[in-house]
Amino acid sequence: MTDTLKQFILSHCCEDGFIEGHLSSSAVSTAVACVALDLYGGHDNAVAAGRQWLLEHKNADGLYGDSPESPANLTATFLAYSALRNTHADEVREAEAYLNKTFGGLMFEAVKAGLLKEYGKDLTFSVPLLALATASGFFPDAAHAWRNMPNFPFEAALLPESWFKFLNLPVVSYAIPALICVGLAQLKYRPNKLRALAVKKALRVLTEKQPEDGGFLEAAPLTGFCVICLCAAGLREHFTTGLAVRFLLESQRPDGSWPIDRDLRLWTTSLALDALAPSLSEEEKVFYRTRMLSAQTKTVHPFTRSEPGGWAWTTHSGGVPDADDTSAALIALHGLGEPASDTICRGITWLLNLQNSDGGIPTFCKGWGKLPFDRSCPDISAHAYKAFTLYENELPSALKRRVIRAKQRIIRYLQDVQRPDGSFIPLWFGDQTNPAKEAPAYGSAVVLSHLSGENLPFLEKTREYLRSARGKDGLWGTICVSARCAVALNMDGKFLQSYADHPESLPLEPIGLYFAHLWYSEELYAPVFLAKAVKA
Asked: pTM score, two decimals?
């Protein structure tokens, strides 16, 4: 890695020792937050600033993408239009015409059918979108809309989390707050005395899942949807609503916008330290090692009820431990010289306990597997494989035996999900220019690099795929993906040198996939990936 890249990455180190990049502002987040604060009332300046940001960040066609670098899509345009239609109707005529054409009309049944078609069986986003539109006055007959959108059974949240995987819930595991809040708003328009008996307990569950800073998952969209539906349910004065509003106000940026999540500071720190470790002094390694160790979860997490031992993507209270961030933290700590301490063994055990019956590793919760963002996925499974491999020979014998078995199961899983052309499809990263929004080059590079050194025949097909996917310009689409591919193929990264020499001018590349095809860019992705690919 070049000194230029190293210094650029380290310049993002905060006072508390974590390396924090910058997430792109999001039309989706900004629109949801504006609607939420407008319905709550009393924060006209924040709403006006958010709306102004939306007005200034339309695409050339008058529509909206998730980030300023993203092409227009249905979700971002629908939300921005919902946030602006009552106050800036003339400025959103193009969006109105697009939505009218896409849905075949703007009445409830047409919009409902269009959103359900867009998202399919996963109702995590489609029903909250309908709820937001209904609460903001989009449909003339709001009562009809509340009664006729798909029902969210908020009572299910009262059951033990271990039961959720058997209930066929309409949302992903990390959207239980939305399940509760949307369901409570629906109940107001579908009165049911028996269901009403569960309201107080459901609110208690919601309060227990809410972090101390008020932001569910540190995310403006999820938090904003909850505020909207709690207000619609007549619960504006509830403590949870006020705390969620405080989060929205505190996380708004000076330019009036909101990012898709507050930050990814623990994730970017882990990635950066993995790249920087060989060039750090022993004193620096101790400094960063201490920070990483301090960020491990020490108690049962209230959101997913997961045991202690994992790491989240952020150090803020709304972060939830997950497999990708836990693997990244373990890999970074190994590079910083951390032995197989009790902390490491807890992290390894945490990952082992998450492994699904298919042998793969999911993101948050074991065994859900019904909706896309709860299933096992090859990129996260391969990431865990590398973390296991680095510490395998240092572990106590019983734990080592578990790791060996888990790795064998991951290999079988990867063979099962490899595509015929040799590629792998990642979960949390994608390609917004791809018709299917998939990033096979990125996913293949991640799997290949994390299994580096393994003599596995099926990986040769992955290498062949990556070699054939390289463009005539020498890149694999974006700089970020090209850097990862170079590392995976053990290539000389000189063809990326010109980008590495000027990290401050690297373009923002929305390769991050939040969920439901919501795109974001992260300022540090390209520099950190380049640091692994370009040698000094």
From this structure: 0.95
- 260: amino acid identity, one letter: I
Instruction: Please list, residue by residue across 48-72, b when 16 or more beta carbons sit within 10 angstroms of its beta carbon and e when fewer do.
Output: ebbbebbeebbbeebbbbbbbebeb
Give the Cα separation of 389 and 392 in Å (integer).
Answer: 5
Structure-token pair, residue 304: 């997913």
Q: What is the mean pLDDT of residues 465-469?
A: 97
Q: Which H or E element spans position 290?
A: helix 282-294
pLDDT in tens, 276-294: 999 999 999 999 999 999 9
In CATH, which of 3.40.50.1110, 1.20.120.450, 1.50.10.20, 3.30.420.10 is domain 3-22+263-533? 1.50.10.20
pLDDT at 516 over 70: no
Q: Which helix (H) or strand (E) holds 475?
A: none
Structure tokens at 83: 């946030």
Segment (H or E) for 85 = none
Rounded Cα distance between 354 and 363, Å, is 8
Residues 381 and 388: their CA atoms lie apart, in Å, by 11
**pLDDT tens digit sequence for 237-256:** 999 999 999 999 999 999 99
User: What does the alpha-carbon distance between residue 17 and residue 20 come to, in Å, rounded to a whole number?
Assistant: 9
Render pLDDT for 160-172 as a digit per residue (tens, 0 to 9): 877 777 777 778 8
* Residue 66 Cα distances to 55, 348, 431, angstroms: 14, 35, 13
- Which residues share a beta bridge with 259? 25
The answer to whether 468 and 490 have CB atoms below 8 angstroms apart is no
The pair of structure tokens assigned to 236 is: 């504006």
